[in-house]
Amino acid sequence: MARRAALAAGVVTGVLVLGAGGYVAADAYDLVPGFLTLEPVPDPPQPFPTIPGAVEAPELEPVLSEADPSAPVPDAAELTALAEAAADHVWMGDSVGIVVADQLTGEVLVDLDGDQPHVPASTAKVATGAAVLSALGPDATLTTSVVQGPGGRLVLVGGGDVMLAAGAGDPEATNGRAGLADLAAEVARQLRLAGVTEVTLGVDDTLFSGPQAAPGWGEDVISLGFVAPVTALAVNIAKTRDEPYPPRHADPSLHAGETLAGLLREQGVVVTGSVGREVAPAGARTVGTVESAPLREVVRYALHTSDNTVTEVLGRMVAVERGLPGSFQGATRAVLAELGRLGLDTDGAALADTSGLADGSLLSPALLVDLVLHAADPQNAALLPAAVDLPVAGWQGTLEDRLGQSPARGLVRAKTGSLPGVTSLAGTVVTPSGRSLVFAVIADDTPPGGQLGPRRVIDTFVQQLAGCGCDLPR
């Protein structure tokens, strides 16, 4: 655990800042939840009238403010006593790991079975998010294209974007940034220029390989909508209706191809025959492309919504970027290898998939804490979204309805994890004196009865961290 202090040197606090003035300014004026307010986020104000010819202000980028090294570090003995009480609770079962570290120095303040691998559930998504940001970069986008081969045959080529809109793309959205209607319009324009009015259409999703469902997934996870078959392209994450866990299209790639065929017909292009799978011919001419949202936004979406399908795609993109097969086996190997490339100790770690949904994954609380520390290090700017884009307690994503009371509300950023018998939480918390801590809690042998009990214990522990007076003068 001593290695944690070295990689955390120069780490900054996990507080979202908007531009140079930062989160502190926005917080002070009650614009966002945080240090100085626990009020709900207000409705956005009506925009000011636009002055003709006025230059719009540039968009503000999230950054991290520098930590105050003078803020006192909590007493390790008192934090350990709180952690032991949580770990010993009957609702947590007999297999619990807890690590708490100081974010500024990396000093480990609590270590209860921290180096022992545990089933991470969806906290594994932090590892996948960091890996794809490291391998491809936060500004990378995923391209969906249509190419034209011999005889005028069109092929829709998947590039990993499973968040395509069935209609026009929305430049403000993450899910739906790229639209098949826009792609159809561009393809139709190119065909008209070439004097082509009739085509056939196929789909190439060979960027990914192997089975579309992980061996460790139960038979019902797809039918219940927890995940879609993993393919290289899909419309709206293969949802058949717009809700968190709807039934999914059995073949997302072919559904995307059929959707494009209908949109081409609306553009006046005659599409004959049925849409089938094929490999795009080498040297085929590209006649249209659309781009996904930047990966930083896709990672944020996956972390906020805990979307299994999007995360599995991100893992495959790491594999493809590193020259491995775009399969479950390639993705899991690639994500762990990328963490090792970042200097993290993955000894004992194992991934059965990259979303945490399958049986067989093992990550230690110590590795999760090291990962968040590493992502918050200013020397690792590409990884920053893996630290600052975790859901905020009482405000966002899977923490919107958790930790919503003072003192934790607005001061905890964390990724949740839930499987039968497993409850986990990993992220950052700010103490009353302003010291930022990184924590990971995994209970992976909880008694029957569901998530309510262990979640209540873990949330109470995090509330105690957020309200701990053990770093204040006596």
Automatic annotation (TrEMBL):
Signal peptide: none annotated. The keyword NADP does not apply. GO terms for biological process: peptidoglycan metabolic process; proteolysis. Its EC number is 3.4.16.4. Keywords: Carboxypeptidase, Hydrolase, Protease. InterPro entries: Beta-lactam/transpept-like, Peptidase_S13. NCBIfam families: PBP4 (TIGR00666). Belongs to the peptidase S13 family. PANTHER family: D-ALANYL-D-ALANINE CARBOXYPEPTIDASE, PENICILLIN-SENSITIVE CARBOXYPEPTIDASE A. This is D-alanyl-D-alanine carboxypeptidase/D-alanyl-D-alanine-endopeptidase.
